[in-house]
Amino acid sequence: MMHVRPVTGSIGAEIGGLDLCRPLSPEDAGALRQLLMRHQVLFCRRQFLTIPQQKRLNVVFGPLYRLPYVQALADEPDVIAVLKEATETNVGVFGGDWHSDFSFLKIPPAGSILSAVEIPVVGGDTLWANQIHALANLPTELRRKIAGQTAVHIGKPYGQTEAPAMASRAGASMRMSRGDPAADQEVFHPLIRTHPESGQEALFVNPIYTTRIAGFDAVESSAVLAELYHYAWQPEVCCRWQWQAGDVVIWDNRTTLHYAVNDYDGYRRLLHRTTFSDGLPPA
Ligand code: SIN
């Protein structure tokens, strides 16, 4: 039988008693979707999913979303290997700053699944932050200031104008296309978005892809973003997962930020990642 253990008072729950390698019953699939809406991130230990099993689990939450710019596995176009080799030292990692995945797309992904294949003996944790609670924690004045505003997102790591310095780029194991002028296109999303199923409001900005708040001048935009980021990843709205091989993590990309901790030089870390879509722009 399925059991649920929240991992913090704000975000994340560990789910036990489920074998994700098998097709889920409609009841279990519905229960998992509800749990994801409630906890934003679900953690399941010791699943050791094959790629077909991971793709089948992905479809429980939405159709597979093929991502641009990041090269997928040669024979699995819907699966990305999130990899840093032991030999890749002093490089950035994929997702190594707070972000909501691909928020610069007109239709950003609804969520993702990571399945841990090889994990360092120590380090390589991932953090998530609850953006429903981050929004709720904003002081009234700040919340009033951002109500109805939109933020500009661009695919900086893949574009030309604001490409990251070499030192902060993910290493060679993550094959990404760079320098595409199309990635520099400005996409406008509401600063506060509403989850299409739960109706809950969440803050929707992140330092990897958000460049500015559309209605503010440059100085005010930077100041307000800095203030928002103070609330976005306060420890009280975060959880941190210490991976073990076989773990599966499912998260809602609409209501969370996440951060891959890059503290494991000298060790190999490999996870398989699939992504699901709701087909909707943030509203
Ligand atoms: C990601 O941003 O999807 C990568 C997360 C991780 O490697 O922990």
Description:
- The protein is of the alpha+beta class and 283 residues long.
- The chain has one domain (3-276): Double-stranded beta-helix (4-Layer Sandwich).
- Helix content is 19%, strand content 25%.
- The protein is built from 5 helices and 15 strands.
- The strands form 4 sheets. A 7-stranded mixed beta sheet has the order 1-2-3-13-5-15-4. Strands 12-6-14 form a 3-stranded antiparallel beta sheet.
- Strand 1 and strand 2 form a beta hairpin.
- The chain is globular and about 50 Å long.
- The model has no long low-confidence stretch (mean pLDDT 95).
- The structure holds succinic acid.
- Succinic acid binds next to strand 14 and strand 15.
> What's the main sheet like?
7 strands, mixed
**How much beta, percentage-wise?**
15-25%
What is the β-strand count?
15
Query: Helix and strand string, N-terminal first?
Result: EEHEHEEEHHEEEEEHEEEE
Keywords:
283 residues; alpha+beta; seven-stranded mixed sheet; three-stranded antiparallel sheet; globular; binds succinic acid
Task: Draw up the topology in text.
Blueprint: E1 3-6, E2 13-16, H1 26-39, E3 41-44, H2 51-61, E4 80-84, E5 111-118, E6 126-130, H3 131-136, H4 140-146, E7 150-153, E8 187-190, E9 192-194, E10 201-203, E11 210-213, H5 218-232, E12 238-241, E13 248-252, E14 256-260, E15 269-276
Parallel strand pairs: 2-3
Antiparallel strand pairs: 1-2, 3-13, 4-15, 5-13, 5-15, 6-12, 6-14, 7-8, 7-11, 9-10
The structure holds succinic acid (SIN).
